[in-house]
């Protein structure tokens, strides 16, 4: 019984040359790998009974034999009400609004509105994310203050607000008739929770600019997941840009700054957490892409995923007793309360701006805006929190964003060429 704590206690220092702040070494229970398994056990306590219930209803042929007041709920959760669409486009994003009667000035205003909304939402979200996870609260001249450690509570805060916003939007606007079995959202929800948790937790070990570049490099695992999950094929330029992104990220990660502090050291734990974030997030996007074969809107997708996200996170927090502890932390530090609420508001508003921008201007314009946002986020983080970037690291950043813009340009050219294809020819699917 004493072996497991000893092994877990030794894991944070296994990486060669890794320097971790003393606050992260308070106890083996604070180590991220232990918390990950505890969270996973909490999710399993909900997933396993749910899986058994689904199998039970399917084996009983509940659609034919079921009756009573619970029948509509069970039917919607387990079986759904519609078959899949023949073409995936039927359930994807609604047709992009064309500027038929709108003036050029109106379109420019809409574009500026979308760009400003996305930049404000996600730049604020990035700054707050780094503030919450890397700085202390309640510090005085005699008291160093305390850090907030439970990343899962922040995930819960984000998801509960996103669930509320999506639910109100679906209730107030006309949506397609929903047909997907509700339980299928749980797969994307679980991977989304884990990717968000890894993202927050990684900031305890790596700098924010490193995390942003790692997000930019998730094109590579997304392509790999696309091949595994959806059997997609890709063009040569997609492999080229993916390779350039890998080179740029490697240049940044391997560059060394002379005045690095503990907060900016890229540690082994941080790299593992980033890899976890990228893998889970890649699965989420590909599973959601597969779910769009049912007729649904993006907001319905947002609602369905966040229903399960709230269920998983609040269940795990209650089982661990961490929900009350996090609420006590909020009561002790009003500044943290404001930051956590604003963090959730930015996350929910950002998702709505994503849907609106893609609907109005298409995915290419949205990708350009978000790529610029990543560059601005690195610059803002360096200015506010004093991160240093070497010349080699700066060149690596430039290579990454050059590859991203090259990817957007090549994709737009491919779409123009696809429109000219004769009937019967199908274009290659892309991420």
From TrEMBL:
Entries under Pfam families matching the protein? UAA (PF08449)
Recorded GO cellular component terms are:
endoplasmic reticulum membrane; Golgi membrane
Q: Which SUPFAM superfamilies match?
A: Multidrug resistance efflux transporter EmrE
Where is the protein found, in the record's own terms?
Membrane
Residue intervals passing through the bilayer = 33-57, 108-128, 153-172, 236-255, 261-280, 301-318, 338-356, 363-386, 392-410
Q: Where is the signal peptide?
A: 1-17
Q: What is its main location?
A: membrane
Instruction: Write out the entry's keywords from A to Z.
Output: Membrane, Signal, Transmembrane, Transmembrane helix, Transport
Its membrane topology is listed as: Multi-pass membrane protein
Q: Which GO terms describe its molecular function?
A: 3'-phosphoadenosine 5'-phosphosulfate transmembrane transporter activity
What's the family?
Belongs to the nucleotide-sugar transporter family. SLC35B subfamily.
Name of this chain's protein: Adenosine 3'-phospho 5'-phosphosulfate transporter 1
Q: Which organism is it from?
A: Thryothorus ludovicianus
The protein's gene is named Slc35b2
């Amino acid at each position: 019984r004493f072996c497991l704590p000893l092994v877990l206690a030794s894991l944070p220092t296994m990486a060669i040359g890794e320097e971790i702040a003393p606050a992260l070494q308070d106890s083996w229970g604070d180590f991220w790998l232990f918390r990950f398994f505890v969270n996973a056990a909490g999710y399993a306590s909900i997933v396993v009974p749910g899986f058994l219930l689904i199998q039970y209803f399917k084996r009983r042929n509940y659609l034919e034999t079921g009756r009573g007041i619970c029948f509509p709920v069970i039917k919607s959760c387990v079986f759904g009400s519609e078959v899949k669409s023949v073409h995936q486009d039927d359930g994807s994003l609604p047709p992009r609004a064309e500027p038929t009667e709108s003036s050029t000035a109106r379109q420019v205003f809409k574009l500026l509105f979308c760009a400003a909304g996305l930049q404000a939402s996600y730049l604020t979200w990035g700054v707050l994310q780094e503030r919450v996870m890397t700085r202390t609260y309640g510090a005085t001249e005699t008291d160093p203050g305390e850090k907030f450690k439970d990343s899962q509570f922040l995930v819960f805060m984000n998801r509960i607000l996103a669930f509320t916003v999506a639910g109100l939007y679906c209730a107030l606007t006309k949506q397609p008739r929903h047909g997907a079995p509700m339980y299928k959202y749980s797969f994307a929800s679980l991977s989304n929770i884990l990717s968000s948790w890894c993202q927050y937790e990684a900031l305890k070990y790596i700098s924010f600019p490193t995390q942003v570049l790692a997000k930019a490099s998730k094109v590579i695992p997304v392509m790999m997941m696309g091949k595994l999950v959806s059997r997609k094929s890709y063009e040569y330029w997609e492999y080229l840009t993916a390779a350039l992104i890998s080179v740029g990220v490697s240049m940044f990660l391997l560059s060394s700054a002379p005045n690095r502090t503990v907060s900016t050291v890229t540690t082994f734990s941080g790299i593992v957490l980033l890899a976890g974030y990228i893998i889970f997030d890649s699965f989420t996007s590909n599973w959601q892409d597969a779910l769009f074969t049912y007729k649904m809107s993006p907001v319905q997708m947002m609602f369905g995923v966040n229903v399960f996200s709230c269920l998983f996170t609040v269940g795990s927090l209650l089982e661990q007793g961490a929900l009350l502890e996090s609420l006590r932390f909020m009561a002790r530090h009003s500044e943290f309360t404001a930051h956590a609420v604003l963090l959730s508001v930015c996350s929910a508003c950002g998702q709505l701006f994503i849907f609106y921008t893609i609907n109005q201007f298409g995915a290419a314009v949205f990708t350009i805006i978000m790529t610029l946002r990543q560059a601005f986020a690195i610059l803002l983080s360096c200015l506010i929190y004093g991160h240093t970037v070497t010349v080699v690291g700066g060149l690596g950043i430039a290579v990454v964003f050059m590859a991203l813009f090259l990817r957007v340009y090549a994709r737009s050219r491919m779409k123009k060429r696809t429109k000219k294809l004769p009937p019967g020819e199908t274009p290659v699917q892309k991420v």
